[in-house]
Amino acid sequence: MKKILILIIAVAALVAWAEPAGFKSLPGGEWKPKGEWSARKGNILLTDVPQGKEAGQQFWMERAVDLTPFRGKEVAFMVRYRCTGVSKAPETYNGVKFMLTYRETPEGNMHYPGGNGMHGDSDGWQWTAFSVNFPATVAGGTLCLGLQNSFGKVEFDLASLRAGVLFSPENRVNLDWKVAYPERVTNLPRLRGVMSPTRSPMTI
């Protein structure tokens, strides 16, 4: 959860200030509904599940994704969403779903990474994101956007849907930059480190 939160903050900061280098939009592909209550309206994927219809069910739009360009790479997927009255699912990984399903090999185990578990009411459009370290054998997967085991309404902005390789040369900046310390720091004797917080002098 901590890793996902850090990723979302980093992605949101990047997108707020500039288009992340190396990240590409994912506008293409045919979106198909899984279950009822989901549809595409222009650039918006909408899932609106009535209360009482959610138990144990998957309601989302999904599409196939070619993952061969991402073999052996750490990849981030991101999209903007907003939700209204989405119930909290019994499982922490259900609720609003932004999920990728894939196999490491055609016969391998299924994996389900995603930015999931959001619920309630969002304050306008928000970013959700997740990252995957793909094996060199991955071929294809399925993106799923909607609700699982929750009622309420969620929308996804397809114009914001994108993916990009993390830690790639395209995303590295200031490669020649070096830290410059003032003399009052460089003239200090070598220190072993500090411990914080502390409420009383340390004893040895």
Poorly predicted runs of 5 or more residues: 12-19, 200-204
Question: Helix/strand-derived class?
Answer: mainly beta
Q: In total, how many beta strands?
A: 11
Q: Measure the end-to-end span.
A: 36 Å
The coarse silhouette is globular
Radius of gyration over alpha carbons? 21 Å
Mean pLDDT: 83
The helix content is: under 10%
Question: What order do the helices and strands follow?
Answer: HEEEEEEEEEEEH
Percentage beta strand:
35-45%
Number of helices: 2
Largest sheet entry: 6 strands, antiparallel
Can you offer a commentary on this structure?
The chain has 204 residues and is mainly beta. It is 10% helix and 38% strand. The chain contains two helices and eleven strands. It has helices at residues 2-17, 183-186, and strands at residues 23-25, 32-34, 38-41, 44-49, 58-66, 74-84, 95-103, 110-111, 126-133, 140-148, 152-165. Strands 1, 3, 4, 6, 9 and 11 form a six-stranded antiparallel sheet that branches. The protein is globular, with a radius of gyration of 21 Å. The model is unreliable at 12-19 and 200-204 (pLDDT under 50).
List keywords for this structure.
204 residues; mainly beta; 6-stranded antiparallel β-sheet; 5-stranded antiparallel β-sheet; single chain; disordered C terminus
Topology (SSEs and partners):
Blueprint: H1 2-17, E1 23-25, E2 32-34, E3 38-41, E4 44-49, E5 58-66, E6 74-84, E7 95-103, E8 110-111, E9 126-133, E10 140-148, E11 152-165, H2 183-186
Antiparallel strand pairs: 1-11, 2-5, 3-4, 4-11, 5-10, 6-9, 6-11, 7-8, 7-10
